Amino acid sequence: MGVLVRSFLLLGVLLWLLPTVASASDAMRASREAFDAGRLEEALTHARAAVEEGGDEPQVEALLQVGLIYNAMGQQKQAVRALAEAMPRADRAGGTAAVRVRQAMAGATMFSRQADDAEPLLREALALTEGRDDPELRHARALVLHDLGILLAARGRVADARQHFRDAAALAEEAQDPSL
Q1: Which of 16, 25, 31, 81 is the most buried (most CB within 10 A)?
Q2: What is the rounded average pLDDT of the residues 49-66?
Q3: What angle do CA 35, 142, 54 make, to 5 degrees?
Q4: Does the pLDDT value for residue 8 go beyond 80?
Q5: Cβ distance 71 to 38 under 8 Å?
């Protein structure tokens, strides 16, 4: 096969892949906008489209979005299913993806019959941030500590909850992050 033919084949493959990435990105943007506006069915449609369009990393974000939408709709079983599908991909991607998926899964399980699964998921998410100096992971750690505090307080473990809230507040103060 000549160099020119191979070049055209490679160009064709690249041009075929490019719209997919743009489509997944556009679908996620549309999903987030619809979610923020409270149009959950529309948000779900766009997020599902992003799952179909994206590669491994975009699929993690899209499946996380699907899980969050189902949770907001009160459909925890579907939320857990989408997040369980995202978890191995998030683990491969590493970074905050694995933490965020576990945190979302814990949130979905807290309000379902699987409430006992929430604490181990949050503790796994916490372990993924342990000793890491990445600002995104410190931010994620503060959020997980906060969520764990809420869960423990709801279970009557107030002293443990207070300590988690204090740790989350200390991280927020250290990071000087107003969103925390």
Answers
A1: 31
A2: 80
A3: 40
A4: no
A5: no
